[in-house]
Amino acid sequence: MKLPKTLRVYLISGKMDIAAWMEYRVNFLLYLIAGAVMRLLTPIVVYLIYYNGLTFPGWDFYQVFFLVGTFTFVRGFSSFITSSVAWWSNEMIHNGTFDKLLIRPMSPMKQLIIRETELDESSGLILGIILVIFSLYKMDVPIDAYNFALYVWFMILGIVFISSFDILSGALNFIFVKTDSIKDLFWESSMFGKYPLTIYGVIGHAIFTFAIPFGLLAFYPAEAFFGRMESTLFVQLNLITLAFLSVSLVMWKYAMTRYTSVGG
Amino acid sequence: MGLVRTLLGFAKIQFSEENVYRLDSFIWMLLVPAFFLVEYFLWRAIFSVSTQEIIRGFTFSGIVIYFFLSHIVQAVTSCRVDSEISRSVKNGKFIKHLVRPINFLTYSFIRNCWRAVFRVKFLPILLIIGYFTIPSFEYTSLNLLFFIITVIFAITIRFSFTFLFGLISFWTKEYWGIKSIRQGIHMFFAGSVIPLTFFPSSLQTISKYMPFQYMLYVPIQTFLGTYSTVEVMNLILVQVIWTAAFFGMSLLVWKKAHTRFMGVGV
């Protein structure tokens, strides 16, 4: 079976990235450790909270660990796909090299996605999987196939949502040339999704469900896994994610028309 | 007079730089309160189901003030001199620091101090949010004075420590990985993710022998009135010792480090 063209090029790019990283193995290892150290801070905070006999309302220790692991995985996975859209568009628009992408027979966004596979970000992916498996093992609950399918589906929605943020961030790079903070704003604001939404009260819960669905990054996948998901939310969250993706793609298309080859 | 003119010159440069990156400043003005809000809601939820009124020495009001001040101290003490050294060594622009008629360490320190002053602009939105979220609390003017003094030393420790670490760039090709590991350890042992009293006792003991708590945890606890006057004096002395040690080591390492600069890209 023949793989789609974009995926083939992405895999070739991945191979080249691996080869490049292997030239600097110690550096690669340092990047992985660095990523893991920063990402471990949240699980450690959770551990210390429960170590001191405290609790999140309605969530036991391993359930929160499961949620944090899911959050780490979703953010880690999205790094592989679209974070290079936000990073590289910022750089290329500023130094004028974005021109190159416009003359090639592939859409600029696809080129940005395949430009780098962000292997150094794999610590998020690995740590997320470890946390999820560890908490599942400790909880020792039977895995319901339907709930597990919902869990995976909501994680996909979470990845699509956070990827929309990357695309939006990339689009804004055309308007505000050379600013690192837009990436930071989109990336850091996702921290609202790293704990159960119930901590934000009714209004916060509603905002992070319907307005900016940070709940998709971990809370709703975890709720679905534990069979606590309200069925009415399923359609709504799908539509909201689709809306975010559509808006970000429209913004990207519009923003590209404003490209003026600064410094090119 | 010459010194004042130099210092004002640095202030002017810093002001211009801050004006160039207005959008960056505005975004961080929004992000810092956002970080605080996550911590506020997290601890509000934890206290709402806890049977204890005081947890590890903190009331709900105390922990909210702790995180509120934590963001103020972090904003004022934050230092990126290591990234600047790393970047300029890599692209060869470091040469300009070697031809300036001012010692690089002094130059960087003055720039960092002005940055600390200008970083206060991150705080208005945080102060407004603090007004609505912080329950009533009391403090004495002596504690406020001690807080200001310990924050000043926190700036000097953090700068000298970061500078010393940044000099590693003269030996390594890449610095980002080392920087991130240092940052993670720093954040944890400084008490910026959770107060140190929540640590197991063994980790609390280890943290006493590290410089990180003197950059954040100690100033905040000083404001909260955790320490007696004698204890505060001792802690300030420790801060002075850490500052002297890191500045001394920075000077020593600098002598060796700058001779390794190859001027790549000049």
Write the SSE topology:
The complex is a heterodimer of chains A (264) and B (266).
Chain A: H1 5-23, H2 25-51, H3 61-81, H4 83-95, H5 98-102, H6 108-115, H7 122-139, H8 145-175, H9 181-189, H10 201-211, H11 219-225, H12 231-256
Chain B: H1 2-20, H2 22-49, H3 60-77, H4 81-91, H5 95-99, H6 104-118, H7 123-133, H8 141-166, H9 176-190, H10 201-208, H11 217-223, H12 229-257
Number of strands of chain A: 0
What characterizes the major β-sheet of chain B? Answer: none
Question: How many individual helices of chain A?
Answer: 12
Order of helices and strands of chain A: HHHHHHHHHHHH
Structural class of chain A: mainly alpha
Write up this protein:
The complex is a heterodimer of chains A (264) and B (266). Chain A has 264 residues and is mainly alpha-helical. Chain A is 74% helix and 0% strand. Chain A has one domain (5-10, 22-256). Chain A has twelve helices and no strands. Chain B is mainly alpha-helical. Chain B has one domain (2-260). In chain B, 72% of the residues lie in helices and 0% in strands. Chain B contains twelve helices and no strands. Chain B has helices at 2-20, 22-49, 60-77, 81-91, 95-99, 104-118, 123-133, 141-166, 176-190, 201-208, 217-223, 229-257. Chain B is globular, with a radius of gyration of 20 Å. The chains are: A mainly alpha (264), B mainly alpha (266). The interface between A and B is large, with 39 and 39 residues.
